[in-house]
Amino acid sequence: TQLLEQSPQFLSIQEGENLTVYCNSSSVFSSLQWYRQEPGEGPVLLVTVVTGGEVKKLKRLTFQFGDARKDSSLHITAAQPGDTGLYLCAGEADRGSTLGRLYFGRGTQLTVWP
Amino acid sequence: KAGVTQTPRYLIKTRGQQVTLSCSPISGHRSVSWYQQTPGQGLQFLFEYFSETQRNKGNFPGRFSGRQFSNSRSEMNVSTLELGDSALYLCASSTAAGRIYEQYFGPGTRLTVT
pLDDT tens digits, residue range B26-55? Predict the structure, then answer.
């Protein structure tokens, strides 16, 4: 059973389109990270959100942490082929019980066609 | 600052053999986590070491073991390899200090068991 559920699992879109990826859980997280992974490489940290309701922007990428700190979304505006990759969300649970542990979703594989 | 390095990058082994993978964390990072990544299961947590002590452990059989040295470098060992152990093994390091726990990944070791 995955603690974090990501949707959709696969997304194939044309360049210029907008998209949103979701990361949901029934658990509360003290922080949540988003990573992007390209084939044959390790995941690269994109952003960390900490406060419920927090919104962070990274160029065309907008990340939001849910008010209850149980879910998050990643919105990409005007997607480009360079955005292609596996997007992973990871949550840090309550430190008292699982110090030093991130829980990962299965990821969303995004393909942007020129 | 140099990133996380993993050696070797690629490895081919035969069923029944054992293998040792190495990870050098970012300078100053005291926490090292190991993950197994396969297309079907996503990122599966193996274990986490902090200051030479295993602090967290995932649900993997005892054939998977690890250790951390005083310089924070870590090794992971898999004994009696099975075909299902073929995967990308990722190492991630963290300062594990402060309020937020962020991990920085290495490029991974691609293990193929034949």
Answer: 999 999 999 999 988 889 999 999 989 998
Retrieve residue B17's tokens.
């053999």
Residue of A nearest to B51 (CA): A100
Report the half-sphere exposure of B8 (CA within 13 A, side-chain side). Answer: 9
CB A4 within 8 A of CB A101: no
pLDDT in tens, A82-99: 999 999 999 987 656 556
Label residue A100 by pLDDT band (50, 70, 90). low
| Residues A100, B104: C-beta atoms closer than 8 Å | no
Task: For residue B113, give both structure tokens.
Answer: 């068991």
Residue count of chain A = 114
Per the CB < 8 A criterion, the answer to whether B104 and B1 are in contact is no
CB contact under 8 A, A100 and B48: yes
3-state secondary structure chain B: CCCCEEECCEEEECCCCCEEEEEECCCCCCEEEEEEEECCCEEEEEEEEECCEEEEECCCCCCEEEEECCCCCEEEEECCCCHHHCEEEEEEEECCCCCCCCCEECCCEEEEEC
